[in-house]
Amino acid sequence: MTSTMRTLTVLGIETSCDETAAALVRRAPDGMGRILADVVRSQAGEHAPFGGVVPEIAARAHVAVLDRVIGEALAEAGLRFHQLDAVAATAGPGLIGGLLVGLTTAKAIAFAHALPLIAVNHLEGHALTVRLTDGARFPYLLVLVSGGHTQTLGVTGVGRYERIGTTLDDALGEAFDKTAKLIGLGYPGGPEVERRAAEGNPARFDFPRPMIGADNAHFSFSGLKTALRRQAEKLAPLSDTDIADLCASFQAAAVEVVGDRVERAIALWRARVGGRAGRTLVVAGGVAANRALAARLGEIAAAAGFDLLVPPAGLCTDNGAMIAWAGAERLALGLVDDLAAEARARWPLDPAAPVAAGAGVKA
Ligand code: KG4
Ligand code: ZN
Prior knowledge:
CATH architecture of the largest domain: 2-Layer Sandwich
Number of helices: 11
Radius of gyration: 20 Å
Structural class: alpha/beta
Bound molecules: 5'-O-[(R)-(carboxyoxy)(hydroxy)phosphoryl]adenosine, zinc ion
CATH superfamily of the largest domain: ATPase, nucleotide binding domain
Helix content: 40-55%
């Protein structure tokens, strides 16, 4: 694949979950990127009463605001549609109603303005963000931790992902969100659990650390969640101190599990590809915003002789810039889609990866 020598300006649209987002990104011929505008409208307030994302509400809310969000992004960048080189939208994985809203809007723009369309995998957006923010070079080992996904992947190029480990049950962000819900904190739970954990005693409750020491690099969080629920029920009604200690003890267990699994992933990745493993550990996805996790992964990276790269928090959680950037990277390689591109609720980054044992695994 040859890379283009043109500067590329791409509109990116993200509607796979509960953020309606649009951004404009520019990619220089040398591969460096710049964000020209980045507008994110969170629907969190609309889902909060339900303690999680309600797909029907999400789809309707995307329809209501997407046009305006795109207009704001263009205005912020001082650009009009005819000045773009392509339009990119998340085509999966995610909630199908929201995906259809974003992808159909992108198709309409592409058709009306004769622009190439790029149907982006949301996970590829997270995976490539660090090339936009830090100019990271391939290869790197990616720790992808979000509300829907928990995986480690070897990344050797655009569109080239080898899954090393995945979760056998809940995603890490989901475990944070369920913890928050169980103890009466708001949605999304991750940031609130982290805030409360900072005031709590991580040693008060000895929660299980599932999978630690296991031969593979897979993750599991459901046993941890069950232990937390039992403890919360035993203590009810919960004092502020109980809540802080539960959060701190949960976070300590979760961070220890992820740390152990990532150490294992580094070893497996090195054993698999040797010199092609690189020396960079990248953390991406919403939970990468968690400072306790980033600190532990920093220690693990250093011990393995790796550099740790974590995009800024606003680019770890869902946003349009990551979709625009993945679109620009694909466009530079001539990888465009046609207007028949379909939205896909499931879309693994490494379709060839074997199903993990015992898994109700998410793609
Ligand atoms: O990547 P993202 O915005 O959406 C998905 O693609 O899933 O990730 C959202 C997830 C939520 O589960 C949220 O609770 C979690 O990331 N999260 C955090 C933190 N900030 C966001 N989890 C732990 N600590 C945080 N500071
Ligand atoms: Zn995401």
